[in-house]
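quick q for whoever's on today - can somebody do inverse folding on this one?? i tried earlier but teh output was garbage lol. tokens:
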């Protein structure tokens, strides 16, 4: 869910400056990202609460603090802050807020998981961050392409695309190709 929000807002930034296309899907992108951000934020809070209840059925203050300062705790906290920032972006926050919230959400996944068990945790975190950014771009891009193509006219079973739509599809393809290279580099790091 978090990566979907980042991806949809990234797609929205990609098309925002394009006349015609941006007007068609901008409101839709904003609405989808807003709903996904709220849903993901809510589910993240529920998951954190369930984890805490499972770990500490009779919760006390020191135990809560130890969980919150753990990699899991600060990763979850950073994700909640990032999702809150992205909700603000959907509500009309400044343009730079999308980037800040996206970096926070992607960064929230870095302190947990296999990156910390790597022989080179800092390098693995960088590769993981690039991998997650590419994944978010793919999620949002595929959603955006579906929105774009669903609005295109068909004549005799053939889509008629405007020059703007063709340019946007080409731009997605270019960035998506580089994202695939990041996947390959992350996979190579996992093998080392």
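ok took a stab at it. sequence:
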């Amino acid at each position: 869910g978090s990566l979907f929000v980042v991806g949809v807002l990234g797609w929205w930034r990609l098309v925002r400056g394009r006349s015609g296309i941006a007007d068609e899907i901008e409101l839709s992108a904003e609405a989808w990202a807003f709903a996904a951000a709220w849903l993901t934020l809510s589910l993240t809070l529920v998951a954190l609460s369930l984890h805490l209840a499972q770990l500490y059925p009779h919760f006390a203050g020191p135990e809560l603090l130890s969980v919150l300062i753990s990699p899991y705790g600060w990763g979850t906290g950073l994700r909640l802050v990032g999702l809150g920032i992205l909700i603000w972006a959907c509500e009309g926050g400044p343009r730079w807020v999308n980037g800040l919230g996206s970096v926070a959400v992607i960064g929230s996944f870095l302190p947990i998981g296999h990156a910390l068990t790597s022989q080179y945790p800092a390098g693995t975190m960088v590769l993981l961050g690039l991998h997650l950014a590419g994944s978010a771009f793919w999620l949002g891009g595929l959603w955006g392409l579906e929105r774009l193509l669903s609005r295109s006219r068909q004549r005799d079973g053939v889509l008629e695309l405007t020059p703007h739509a063709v340019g946007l599809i080409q731009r997605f393809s270019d960035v998506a190709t580089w994202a695939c290279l990041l996947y390959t580099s992350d996979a190579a790091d996992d093998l080392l």
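fwiw The longest strand covers residues 153-155. also Residues 21-55 form the longest helix (35 residues). so keep that in mind when u check it
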